[in-house]
Amino acid sequence: MLDKRVGSAAEAIAGLRDGATILLGGFGTPGYPARLMDAVVASGMGDLTVVSNNGGANGSGLIKLISTGRVRRLICSFPQTAGATEFQEAYAAGKVMVELVPQGIISERMRCAAAGLGGFLSPVGVGTRLAEGKQVQNVNGRDYVLELPLKGDLALVRADRADRWGNLTYRKTARNFNPVMASAAAVTAVEVREMVDLGALDAEAVATPGIFVDRVLVTG
Amino acid sequence: MLDKRVGSAAEAIAGLRDGATILLGGFGTPGYPARLMDAVVASGMGDLTVVSNNGGANGSGLIKLISTGRVRRLICSFPQTAGATEFQEAYAAGKVMVELVPQGIISERMRCAAAGLGGFLSPVGVGTRLAEGKQVQNVNGRDYVLELPLKGDLALVRADRADRWGNLTYRKTARNFNPVMASAAAVTAVEVREMVDLGALDAEAVATPGIFVDRVLVTG
Amino acid sequence: MKPLSRNAMAWRAAQDLYEGMYVNLGIGVPVMVPPYIPAGREVILHSENGMLGFTGLGKDEVVDPDLVNAAKEPVRLLPGGVFFDHATSFTMIRGGHIDVALLGAFEVSERGDIANWTVDDPGRAPGVGGAMDLAVGAREVRVIMEHTTREGEPRLRKTCRYPLTAAGVVKRIYTSLAVLDVADGVLVVREILEGMTFDDIVQRTEAALRLAPDCRPLRTPIA
Amino acid sequence: MKPLSRNAMAWRAAQDLYEGMYVNLGIGVPVMVPPYIPAGREVILHSENGMLGFTGLGKDEVVDPDLVNAAKEPVRLLPGGVFFDHATSFTMIRGGHIDVALLGAFEVSERGDIANWTVDDPGRAPGVGGAMDLAVGAREVRVIMEHTTREGEPRLRKTCRYPLTAAGVVKRIYTSLAVLDVADGVLVVREILEGMTFDDIVQRTEAALRLAPDCRPLRTPIA
Predict the structure, then answer these.
(1) Which of C14, C183, D53, D86 could anchor a disulfide with B107, C-beta 3.0 to 4.6 Å?
(2) For residue B162, is it within any domain?
(3) Based on the structure, what is the number of domains in chain B?
(4) pLDDT value at position C177?
């Protein structure tokens, strides 16, 4: 019987190694997989590349990793959280290198990897500092930046409900980056509020089909 | 009050002109917008480019258009329907030019247009006849074909339920090409089985948000 | 004359949003717009984190931590509102499906260039968010910003001094003193804060200006 | 010896599908596979029109015209089965999320090239469907086909005569006479139809062959 449930957060992130690339779901707090990230902190792994829209705040696992210098590179669109100082301090202290990518291009680069494509031509950022060093291609008279796929070794995802095949539903704006990240990593670990029987999820409303999911941890 | 309902199929396709590009939903019969296509037949418009996975059969609006020479170019992956002869006869008689595109590349090219991108690098068809004449690019040691966006003037979509904002749900495998086509045309006309009150559709299960939809016809 | 407050600027920008428009509101003053959209107009708001069809939360409404806008503030979903993932959200943004993006900015040039993502402070990590996607992808880009910096320097420039978000994309600017449209390398002044003159605006602006023949007084019902 | 029937070939291919595999079945013999998957193995079938987790329809089951597989035949969704759109479906296919694609073919070469989309009949419009996406994107491509044409010509070739679907992608071939694996420009014969010899296979094959040391008889419980 196919059952993707795991018993602990440590088991969910098993295989994580120094130097890995982690795709980390969430937009601020909604959809952020707090328990899985705590397990990453506990794992001791470092030299990580983390793809996350934000830089973490308020004592989260991500900000702990960053503050202790274990994130070599943060690929994000908006690292700073309003009202929080921890990221700014770690950044000013040189503890993390930031690769700033426009928000829609982060998700599109991950989708590109998920969909098995070799890159895409983006109109975003053309002629700006964020396109420096990237190849520019002209198609039908318009300039585009060639953006390359962004694939993770491990995706950490927060969902609402799952079944044992790994089908997922999300809750409101906690969906955000999670579906695209789930589809763009070699291993996808998910924490969910609730596990339901196979067949209990609406087949029309599953936002992440189980094919993209490897391990599911129920955290409540 | 924003209300995308229209009273007739003719109104739903209003503005269609000779030479237009139509994105036509459906995979065989499921999800094929029969009433809207009948209106295209009745409109008398020709010199059309039609993007459709199949070439139509069994007296459908599409096969009528093709048989009467009104489709200049059919962009499809699998024109022939098992057991049907009408398409084959029209093709052998030179009534339609076929641009054969791998099935996943048809939808990806439409998604590319929908997402405002300039093209994408595809591993599909590299070195085969279907890539002849297309630009090949090597990225990180692998060859890709540069595929360009495919945008419609009019998308014809079949959905299950809609609300007055144009939010759509589909039914089972009748979903197929419809969501990507709905998002990739200048004007999107939809026929639905049923209209429901605003707020009656599950906000987590709407497969096509109303932003992609212009006109909704209830056909039952 | 006292310049318009942030609320008053939000009010003014809201008046130009019409029935059936799909509108994205950037962080800063733009996210303050919803309560000022004239009653009865169904303007459908888009939030890049993955939502269409919401409005601000009323005073006594319950906060749902999983229901936030791009500024991570709690909001309320309207009937007909829907959720989707981030890739779909930016398909809407880049693909020309958003009618109007209302953005904050540091500076706008007379050619409609916008700079709103970094002030180049070497000690601070910059943040771009969805600004570049919105600036390039929305059908129309409008900016809400103070007319000048706290130090009194013009934000409407011949050329932006800060790194660009996108070039030549801004159509209309709502400032604390005026409403201006970008037209062929010059900003056309459509409305001037009641009690001020065109010369007052010229003195506070570096960009080339032209007075619209039908320029009207800029009045808001809130301070 | 009578070659395996289409059903028997489908049966043989089904035996190599294991618990938890995501498998796409092409039109032709592959879509006949579901009833032969050993009971109790949860193999999750993918259909490129936008569905995961289904099986063939039983004799007395009601047909739902909106519930079809890639061959447009009615099927039954299993508990846990889901629907999605076409772009998502091919994300699964091209992105390496499908463990096994079982495809029909006209010819396969000794290097694992596959030709399955056109026989170059100038009077007939060719059809490619999802074959090229599947051939390039699935983690493993397996082919089910008759060992020879109706005229007795080998379908396992040194080089395919028909236009290619993809080069060097096929890993295993189930024919009506044998099971073969592609290995460095030679086809390794793993199983030979019971009652036939390696020489019998050699005579009916153009591709370079090698007999596996542990080659077994190919037996099926159905005719």
Answers:
(1) D86
(2) yes
(3) 1
(4) 98
